[in-house]
Amino acid sequence: MDLHDFGLASDLEMMQRQALERRRLLRWVLAGAATLPLISCGGSSASDTASTGTTATGTTGTGTTATTPTTTACAVIPEETGGPYPADGTNTNGGSIINVLNQTGVVRSDIRSSFNGATGVAAGVPLTIKLQLVNANASCASLAGYAIYLWHCDRDGLYSLYSSGVTAQNYLRGVQETDSSGSLSFTTIFPGCYAGRMPHVHFEVYPSLARAAAASNRIKTSQFTFPLATLNEVYTASGYTSSVRNLAQISYATDNVFSDGTSLQMAGVTGNATDGYVVTLTIGVNG
Q: CA-CA distances (angstroms) from residue 96 to 12, 87, 164, 216?
């Protein structure tokens, strides 16, 4: 069985269990926006995407995209499936438990290379991911000293440790601790688009770096995505040919994770396919 086919089935099963909770969240956000004062998630170097509405897109030079999410009320980012490739100790591949969280070297900002003895490096358009973690229970106060584990596929749509050809690699996975402003940054490559899913990045939130060694301690699992204009631009770059074809066959409306809305999970973007991109997202959790 193709690994991505298995991943889509797993995602669908998880989404069925989460649908009711997320519909209630969306109704609350819509009702609250009409009747309550707005609470800004401002004061961050990252865009306030923990509480976005529509996204404005413009250009800042040839081939350069810039998206600026608009701010509404502070809200908790939806819970999502971690999918079948988390490598956090919650599943197996080839009969062995896959867990990078307790491996030496996983705490790092540059996740393009493999670590702990593996030597592969993921190629692709440069991408910097800037995240800010805020407390939705306290007017979007910054959450310092928390940790985020982040992972995504490579430009061919393959997940290290799981997909055929890259099972000996563990690149595009890493853990970081939030600073005093609740912020952190990862250096990586732009993920490709594989069949059946819009391009996305997975992450788990932990209450501290020490507790990020065990998946049972995670307090949030979610995903974020990118504006379609950016995706179309990125995939003109060398090495993303299959992504062009796969992206043409999927949309946010038909994606099994983002079909109920992307307002809290759409990253703001600056940059271009030649020089690379910077994406920003503010993540609201119940701290």
A: 24, 11, 15, 18
